[in-house]
Amino acid sequence: MVFDPCLVRSSAGDGSEIVRVGHPLLDAFLVLVAARCRPNTVLASAFDLKVFFSIVGKDPVEVDTADVLAFIAAQRAPRRGATVVRIEDGERGLAGRTIKRRLATIAGLYEYLLVRGDTPVVRNPVPRGLALRRDGGRVVRGVPLIRAPRTLPRVIDPEEANLFLAALRTHRDRAMAEAMLLGGLRRCEVLGLRLADMRPGEKRLFIAEGKGGHQRVVPISARFLTTLASYLDGERPQGIETDRVFVVLKGRRRGLPLTAAGLDEIVSGARRRAGIDHLTCHQLRHTCFTRLREAGMALEAIQAQAGHRSIESTRIYLHLANDWLAGEYRRASEAIDAQTLAGD
User: What are phi and psi of 64, to 5 degrees?
Assistant: First the structure.
């Protein structure tokens, strides 16, 4: 059986979204994902399934490892000509991180089918890695299928940050930008803020919709709270039904919660007016934590502020904080020089 995968999004009776790709096994897997993960993860998983089976062109129960390897080759193929590469990682095809995510989705699908036990699938066609050697007849796996380089995220300098904030046209827009730039909130966390989450007396915010469904309470700058108060007092429409903090101010959607696309459009417009070549919401978040690390904030405190589950995700800001690294090097170098002179 060959099917034509098609990603379809529809609304359920309770207001949630249903995502399907048109095959009973895949759709059942997406139901499981929806029960465990956030809506963005469900949508990304559905898109990964659509891409994979569009390229492989087989029914899920007929896929083998050769199909997976052929899929990897197709994803690594040049996208814009053989001589065009991305500066950040030197790749010609899709980014390694994207391919790894898609393989993880496919591997998860087949683990699900194996657990069900009611399909012809008897093994997962996605290999965990390439065999490195045989140890006493046992295959030792040590080489990952895809190597994803760990690149440093971009940050903006204080002058660019000031130009960007000055280019924002409303207190609402400035408050959202300051939540990311001064508090390190993710885009989804900014849009998910509700009026009850504001704790101005404590100078804190309750993050109810963090990544992976994790909640946390974080301190926030008084500067943000001042901008927020100006927005709530003078710009936010009165008498609207939603308790979301940030809403649309004009047009037919006035008073409805602002969407991710709307926030991206606000950031892009201000970036262009400020004359900044590249700027995203996540870049504002990276800039926040880099500045906090440069100011001497402990890495464990940054981890808590960022909502990282692992300290390894936070260590990247050690590399971004140039002043901190330069200071550590200078102190070590001076100590080495002092020992050398003492030896002479």
Answer: -125, 180
